[in-house]
Amino acid sequence: METAPETSSIPGTAVPSVQAPAAPSPAPSEIMQPLEPVAFVSSSPAVGALVSAADQNSQSGNLDSAVAAIERAIRIEPRNAALFYKLAELRLKQSKPRLAEDLARKSALLASGNARLKRQSWLLIGNARVMQQDFPGARAARTKAASF
């Protein structure tokens, strides 16, 4: 869309408008990738109920309540990697990519014997980095995910 040149009230001092160059479009490897659902396992019925409540809240768009439920579940099971992954997903949906990345890193660290969860955590890190415009970091995270 072209705009007419701007003019001032002083004759002979017209200032043409200048359009900024378009930002380069990201390469296909720099676009956010869909994440697979992660199976949740808990020995605590309370944690299972909190995760169910969080899932319902998330589906209805109430992300703050979903986050609160997962945070309570983490207080009950602080070493459950899947809970940190779920919280990272919610933070990404809330457009908080830096926090999502940190939570996904913790999930990957806690998921010592679960290669699938590690892979998904690193893919989420890649998506968080795309949101932060860190395209080389996103590629590195996806490369790491591919190793699991």
Could you report the average pLDDT, rounded to the nearest whole number? 84
User: How much is the radius of gyration in Å?
Assistant: 22 Å
Supply the helix-strand structural class. mainly alpha
Number of helices: 6
Strand content: under 5%
pLDDT below 50 for ≥5 consecutive residues: which ranges?
Answer: 1-8, 20-25
Element pattern in H and E: HHHHHH
Write up what this structure looks like.
This protein is mainly α and 148 residues long. The chain contains six helices and no strands. Helix 3 (81-93) packs antiparallel against helix 4. The chain is globular and about 40 Å long.
Keywords:
148 residues, mainly alpha, disordered N terminus, 6 helices, 0% strand
Helix-strand layout with pairing:
Blueprint (H helix, E strand, L loop, with lengths): L44 H15 L3 H14 L4 H13 L3 H14 L4 H17 L3 H12 L2
Helix pairs in contact: 1-2, 2-3, 3-4, 3-5, 4-5, 5-6
How would you summarize what this structure contains?
This protein has 148 residues and is mostly helical. 57% of the residues lie in helices and 0% in strands.
